[in-house]
User: Which sequence fits this backbone?
């Protein structure tokens, strides 16, 4: 049961595409009712957390508009200002709508569970999902701050801390759903299934669409080599390679790479991205590299890079043939100090060279 619940909430956390606005607004009204509040009079739909964070800053104090403009956000301030009327908002009700119900649900879920049992419940439900979602939330917050300079950056970052995370509250909702049920959180859960981040006020709610696109690698990190790894309908986007932030214009340089272009890149981290995208085997072939060592386990290669530690790899051939009878060759990254191919292969199994004595390789 826990597995099915977690899978369900995992799909919520990483959902993309337009928000279900009718469902989200119904969920928000239910969350207000559960908190004993009158529902909001108005919803302002934001095409990204960038729009939502700027709106939250302006609702906190309209005088911040000039600070945001000085920080380089003039166009966004104009767009947000055209959609907002601060007189409609009133004060923030985040504590009533999200913080207090959350604390009550946590207390209920923990009732009767020892500390080890509570930890085990978290591990079974939201733990692994939290690591991936929290990494994504941190990257979005950082990306929002990087839109501006000076005091404007601090204002944006603070505004993100005041948001209800919508779909990105999924890890905790998975835990509550599996352990104690969603009593008192039905509205929050319904909204999470339908929309992204949102900011609740007495008379108005700012609600964000979900991402248009989200690309991740197998461990769940933001990853894409030919465009933004995360993007929203208004163009707010994050570029990343295996979780490492990249400049927005960098992905275009990955097309038509040459060994000379890779060697000329001054930024060591970006050069590693280029090298991985280009292909280690291709780089070795085109640079005429010579192997450091060869034995029955494979071939050890080394790529020296200026201003960076060398890339050392062991080349191995899969002992299990493909359906067509061929055998795939892999290049496995190993520590720079590796001296032999056997030592490199042993390291990939977490063993010392002398302890690596396979009976049969697969």
Assistant:
């Amino acid at each position: 049961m826990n597995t099915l619940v977690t899978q369900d909430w995992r799909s919520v956390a990483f959902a993309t595409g337009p928000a279900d606005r009718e469902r989200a607004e119904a969920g928000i009204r239910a969350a207000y009712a559960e908190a004993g509040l009158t529902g909001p009079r108005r919803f302002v739909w934001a095409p990204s957390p960038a729009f939502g964070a700027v709106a939250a800053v302006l609702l906190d104090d309209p005088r911040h508009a000039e600070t945001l403009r000085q920080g380089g956000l003039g166009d966004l301030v104009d767009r947000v200002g055209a959609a907002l009327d601060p007189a409609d908002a009133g004060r923030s009700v985040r504590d009533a709508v999200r913080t207090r119900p959350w604390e009550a649900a946590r207390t209920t879920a923990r009732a009767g569970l020892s500390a080890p049992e509570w930890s085990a419940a978290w591990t079974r439900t939201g733990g692994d999902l939290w690591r991936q979602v929290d990494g994504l939330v941190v990257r979005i917050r950082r990306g929002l701050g990087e839109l501006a300079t000076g005091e404007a950056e601090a204002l944006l970052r603070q505004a993100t801390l005041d948001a209800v995370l919508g779909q990105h509250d999924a890890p905790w909702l998975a835990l509550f759903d599996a352990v104690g049920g969603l009593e008192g959180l039905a509205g929050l859960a319904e909204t999470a299934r339908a929309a992204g981040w949102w900011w609740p006020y007495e008379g108005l709610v700012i609600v964000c669409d979900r991402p248009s696109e989200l690309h991740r690698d197998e461990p769940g990190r933001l990853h894409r080599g030919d465009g933004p790894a995360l993007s929203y309908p208004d163009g707010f986007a994050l570029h990343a390679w295996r979780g490492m932030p990249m400049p927005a214009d960098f992905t275009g340089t990955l097309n038509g790479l040459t060994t000379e272009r890779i060697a000329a890149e001054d930024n060591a981290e970006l050069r590693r991205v280029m090298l991985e995208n280009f292909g280690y085997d291709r780089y070795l072939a085109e640079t005429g590299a010579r192997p450091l060592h060869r034995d029955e386990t494979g071939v050890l290669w080394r790529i020296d890079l200026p201003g960076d530690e060398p890339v050392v790899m062991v080349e191995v051939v899969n002992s299990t043939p493909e359906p067509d009878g061929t055998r795939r060759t892999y290049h496995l990254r190993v520590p720079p100090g590796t001296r032999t191919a056997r030592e490199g292969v042993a390291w990939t199994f977490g063993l010392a060279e002398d302890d690596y004595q396979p009976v049969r390789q697969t």
In short: The CA atoms of residues 30 and 207 lie 15 Å apart. Residues 2-210 form one domain. The first strand starts at residue 42 and ends at 46.
